[in-house]
């Protein structure tokens, strides 16, 4: 689906769809992801899940 050499991609939908396409420079950082969390290391993921289970996440004010 994605081609990092020229930035081109294709998308096919089986029904009406809304698509948001964003772009940015690669960060050059390691990525660890599981569920809704994206961090840099597995240890950071474990901490995010522990914080979530302990109720330490609060909604961001709009």
UniProtKB/TrEMBL annotation:
<feature type="domain" description="Pirin C-terminal">
    <location>
        <begin position="6"/>
        <end position="57"/>
    </location>
</feature>
<dbReference type="InterPro" id="IPR053186">
    <property type="entry name" value="QDO-related"/>
</dbReference>
<dbReference type="InterPro" id="IPR008778">
    <property type="entry name" value="Pirin_C_dom"/>
</dbReference>
<protein>
    <recommendedName>
        <fullName>Pirin C-terminal domain-containing protein</fullName>
    </recommendedName>
</protein>
<dbReference type="InterPro" id="IPR011051">
    <property type="entry name" value="RmlC_Cupin_sf"/>
</dbReference>
<dbReference type="InterPro" id="IPR014710">
    <property type="entry name" value="RmlC-like_jellyroll"/>
</dbReference>
<dbReference type="Pfam" id="PF05726">
    <property type="entry name" value="Pirin_C"/>
</dbReference>
